[in-house]
Amino acid sequence: MDEAQRILVVDDEPGPREALRIILDPQYQVVTATDGPEALRVIHDTPPDLVFLDVRMPGMDGLEVLKAVKDVDSRIEAIIMTGYASLETVRGALAYGASEYLIKPFSEDEVDEAVKKALARRAERMGEHQQIQTLLEDLRGLAVQNSLLRERLAHSEKLSALGEMAAGIAHNLNNILAAIMGRAQLLVHGPADAETLQRGVATIQRAVEDGATMVQRIQRFARGGLASEFRATDLNQLVQETVEATQLIWKDQPLQEGGTIEVVMELGALPPVRSRPAELREVLINLILNAVDAMPAGGTLTVRTLVRGGVACIEIADTGIGMTEEVKRRAFTPFFTTKGAKGTGLGLSISHALIRDQHGEIELQSEPGKGTTFVITLPLQ
Ligand code: ADP
Ligand code: MG
Fold it and tell me: Fewer Cβ in 10 A, N or C end of the chain?
């Protein structure tokens, strides 16, 4: 330090006060005070590095002054002086943050040593304080950077939601086009009796309607994000139509590992359900196509509707490969797929969003090698 360090000596007795001044004067800048209040005034005006405090003083005693000094600035070091070695006083002084104590009468060497120790401690604490100050400044800088990053992240999240949406649209349009293509091909090549023809055209019409609804939804999303209207829906009819439509995608194509998929429908008596029908169809298509993917060697696809616990349930169960714990945990995560380039990993995440939007729930039970059951629940009308 360039300047001499400041030491304040507080003692009501002139003897020790002047003795200290004489010992310290050549090396330090010494100021004296005769009682607590005067000492505090000095500390406020020009804070010292170190304070000598006599314990026994009229009015404020040394410990009280010590407390007040530490309240002003805890980095000011203090040396307590007492005329007798009271362990209790010494303990109190150390508890209040005194760094040393001297027992009167003291020698010059004792004073020197106590001052050196106290000032060394102060230097160390000032260093720590400096480090903390630097850390605080660093932290403030980081906080600013962090809020900038967060802003940018919020912005990019919006962008990625759009990206996800775009990928989801492509995925769903593909499903719809596949349904149309499947039926159209059958009509072109197959025996076209009047009934087959009519059913085929009806299927195509529904697929086109779903596609149109989806396009409308995208337009609404772009304008501010409202989905299609809620309607009282006959779930059984909707489920039946959807199973029929999806069957066209895979029914006449040989499965990857041979075998066939048997479809079992178990439709219970259901009151009308409040739903957005086009969105619900989209969800069922996703679940059914996943089930088909999960049964490359064939199996049974069971579609059930029922009322349980006051809500409508749709269950889509397969006897396919099932899911490991990890796949189960991540299945609803956007872009999670185990199908490589063939998968988008969006079917389940979009389905989840669509069902939640209809105040419903979608859950799954699965066991590797045994199969998977998806359960959709929707509130009754
Ligand atoms: P994608 O079908 O494009 O992979 P999804 O979101 O539809 O994306 O499904 C995510 C993943 O969940 C699938 O890749 C698959 O691992 C798993 N999964 C979904 N449905 C089933 C099912 N019925 N049986 C086994 N695994 C399934
Ligand atoms: Mg899928």
Answer: N
Give the pLDDT band (50/70/90) at residue 30.
very high
Cα angle value 206/212/213 (rounded, 5°)? 90
Taking residues 171-200, what's their average pLDDT?
Answer: 78
Q: And the tokens for 31? A: 């100021």
Q: 91-117, pLDDT tens digit by residue?
A: 888 888 888 888 888 888 999 999 999
In this chain, the answer to whether the domains covering 6-106 and 230-381 adopt an identical fold is no
pTM of the predicted structure, to 2 decimals: 0.50
Q: Are 358 and 381 in contact (CB under 8 A)?
A: no
| 255 DSSP assignment | P
For residue 345, give the ligand 1 atom closest to its CA: 8
Taking the domains of the chain in order of start, what are their residue ranges?
6-106, 124-226, 230-381
Q: List, as one string, the DSSP characters of 143-208.
A: HHHHHHHHHHHHHHHHHHHHHHHHHHHHHHHHHHHHHHHHHHHHHHHS---HHHHHHHHHHHHHHH
Question: Residue-wise over 300-330: b if at least 16 C-beta within 10 A, else e?
Answer: bbbbbbebeeebbbbbbbbbbbbbeeebbeb
User: Which protein residue's CA is at the shortest distance from atom 16 of ligand 1?
Assistant: 338
Among 172, 301, 348, which is best to mutate for testing ligand 1, by the most ligand atoms less than 8 A from CB? 348
Using a 6 Å CB cutoff, which residues line ligand 1?
286, 290-291, 294, 318, 320-323, 327, 331, 336-339, 343-349, 372
Cβ atoms of residues 369 and 348 within 8 Å: no
Beta bridge mates, 81:
54, 102
What pLDDT, on the 0 to 100 scale, is given for residue 224?
43
| CATH T-level fold of 6-106 | Rossmann fold (3.40.50)
**pLDDT at position 51 over 50:** yes
Pick from 78-82, 101-105, 369-373 the range whose average pLDDT is largest: 369-373
- Which residue matches tokens 């929707």? 378
Question: Where does the pLDDT of residue 226 fall: very low under 50, low under 70, confident under 90, or very high at 90 and above?
Answer: very low
The mean per-residue pLDDT over the stretch 308-322 comes to 96
* Residue of 290, 319, 344 to mutate, ligand 1, most atoms within 8 A of C-beta: 290
